[in-house]
Design a protein that fits this description.
The chain has 97 residues and is mainly α. It has a single domain, classed as Winged helix-like DNA-binding domain superfamily/Winged helix DNA-binding domain (Arc Repressor Mutant, subunit A, Orthogonal Bundle), CATH 1.10.10. It contains 4 helices and 2 strands. It has a two-stranded antiparallel sheet with strand order 1-2. The longest helix is centred in the last third of the chain and has 29 residues. It is elongated and about 75 Å long.
Length: 97
């Protein structure tokens, strides 16, 4: 399971369509579809029912969604903490004897 797969999944839920999710993430629609297919294969379940007018979340997809959002929130928090740390000036301690 990869971050990009979870991001594609959540973006599709939020956009309601894979093409809109792709645009929001800066990917092509086939790339989003591929990421979601990979996630579905790894989880062993369908996350969406695809329709010509969009993608409808399945019951299993609805169960996965809160965990996917939580994982992405943690990943974003790690990135924010690392970025904050890199902006913190390093101070040297000098001691004289």
């Amino acid at each position: 399971m990869h971050e990009r797969e979870l991001r594609a999944f959540v973006a599709t839920v939020e956009a309601g369509r894979m093409d809109r999710a792709a645009k929001a993430l800066g990917y092509s629609q086939p790339a989003i579809s591929y990421q979601i297919n990979c996630l579905e294969q790894e989880l062993g379940t369908r996350l969406f029912v695809r329709h010509p007018d969009g993608a409808q979340l399945t019951r299993e997809g609805a169960m996965v969604l809160p965990a996917a959002r939580a994982v992405l929130s943690l990943v974003d928090g790690i990135r924010d903490a690392a970025a904050q740390q890199s902006r913190t000036p390093v101070r040297k301690l000098r001691a004289a004897c």
